[in-house]
């Protein structure tokens, strides 16, 4: 049986009701016509920054929150991803999509201190096999009931402390453990070269050279690294593409490359 389609969303899409409506409309058409399971991962960092920019709450590097150090800033950074999930859940109902909002399980918290490299991620998964299998059973139950898990990038560790993981990394882990297919939706139409032009295909062996040369920068680095790890691990291609064109979304879900395809 084929694994689920894992779709990571974020950026300006989370500010646009029209974009969210288009997304769920196309997801509904795709899931109904193909019987494919779907997992949705939200990347709400930009949404969090938008909220904080409207107040006096902006802060950086709040990826972990001890209750004894609890304050408004790190609490909001921890719970906003789940708030975004609830908003997505409300929109999904308009398109008869049965969704279920979920925090991350505690073992994801260990990713906070790990580098995003193939060997490191492989070791992480091997060391947490028992926890991974439990998590697979939980998510598989919802998939078997035709629910789409809406998974945010926050969770609670074993001591009950909030943590937040980069959503591209979350989508990467989910794709690997479910042997799925990953699509990372972004605000730009593809990975771009030094002249601002789309790079149609990137081989895994090219990723670090593109990053080291400064061609790939900022948030696209971790997207590209995560895509590379999935491609190497599963021997499958990963697509990094834009959500802007509503006519492209269904083609993208069906496997057409409209952005940048990362291959092993």
Notes on the structure:
The protein is of the alpha/beta class and 264 residues long. The chain has one domain: Acetylglutamate kinase-like (Carbamate kinase, 3-Layer(aba) Sandwich), CATH 3.40.1160.10. The protein is built from 9 helices and 10 strands. The protein has helices at residues 17-34, 45-53, 72-93, 118-127, 129-144, 167-177, 207-212, 219-234, 246-253, and strands at residues 5-10, 38-43, 64-65, 99-104, 148-156, 162-164, 181-186, 201-203, 238-242, 260-263. Strands 1, 2, 3, 4, 5, 6, 7, 8, 9 and 10 form a 10-stranded mixed sheet that branches.
Which terms summarize this structure?
ten-stranded mixed sheet, 264 residues, single chain, ATP-binding, alpha/beta, ATP binding, 10 strands, Carbamate kinase
Compile the SSE list and pairings.
Elements: E1 5-10, H1 17-34, E2 38-43, H2 45-53, E3 64-65, H3 72-93, E4 99-104, H4 118-127, H5 129-144, E5 148-156, E6 162-164, H6 167-177, E7 181-186, E8 201-203, H7 207-212, H8 219-234, E9 238-242, H9 246-253, E10 260-263
Parallel strand pairs: 1-2, 1-7, 2-5, 4-5, 7-9, 8-10
Antiparallel strand pairs: 3-6, 5-6, 9-10
In short:
With 264 residues, the chain is an alpha/beta fold.
Low-confidence stretches are 46-62, 64-68
The termini sit apart by: 22 Å
Provide the domain count: 1
Average pLDDT over all residues:
85
Q: CATH superfamily membership, which one?
A: Acetylglutamate kinase-like
Protein name: Acetylglutamate kinase
GO cellular component, one term: cytoplasm
GO molecular function: acetylglutamate kinase activity; ATP binding
EC number: 2.7.2.8
């Amino acid at each position: 049986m084929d694994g689920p389609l894992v779709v990571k969303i974020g950026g300006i899409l989370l500010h646009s009701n029209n974009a969210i409506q288009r997304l769920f409309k196309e997801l509904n058409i795709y899931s109904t016509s193909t019987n494919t399971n779907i997992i949705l991962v939200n990347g709400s960092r930009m949404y969090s920054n938008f909220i904080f920019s409207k107040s006096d709450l902006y802060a950086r590097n709040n990826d972990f929150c001890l209750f004894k150090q609890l304050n408004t800033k790190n609490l909001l950074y921890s719970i906003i991803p789940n708030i975004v999930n609830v908003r997505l859940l409300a929109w999904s109902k308009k398109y008869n999509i049965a969704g279920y909002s979920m925090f991350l399980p505690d073992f994801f918290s260990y990713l906070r201190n790990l580098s995003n490299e193939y060997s490191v991620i492989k070791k992480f998964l091997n060391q947490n096999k028992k926890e991974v299998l439990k998590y697979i059973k939980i998510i598989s139950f919802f998939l078997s009931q035709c629910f789409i898990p809406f998974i945010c990038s926050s969770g609670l560790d074993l001591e009950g402390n909030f943590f937040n993981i980069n959503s591209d990394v979350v989508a990467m882990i989910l794709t690997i453990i479910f042997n799925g297919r990953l699509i990372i939706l972004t605000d730009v139409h593809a990975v771009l070269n030094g002249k601002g032009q789309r790079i149609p295909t990137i081989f895994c062996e090219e990723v670090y050279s593109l990053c080291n040369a400064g061609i790939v920068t900022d948030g696209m680095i971790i997207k590209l690294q995560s895509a590379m790890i999935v491609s190497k691990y599963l021997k499958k291609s990963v697509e990094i593409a834009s959500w802007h064109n509503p006519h492209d979304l269904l083609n993208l879900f069906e496997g057409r490359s409209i952005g940048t395809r990362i291959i092993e």
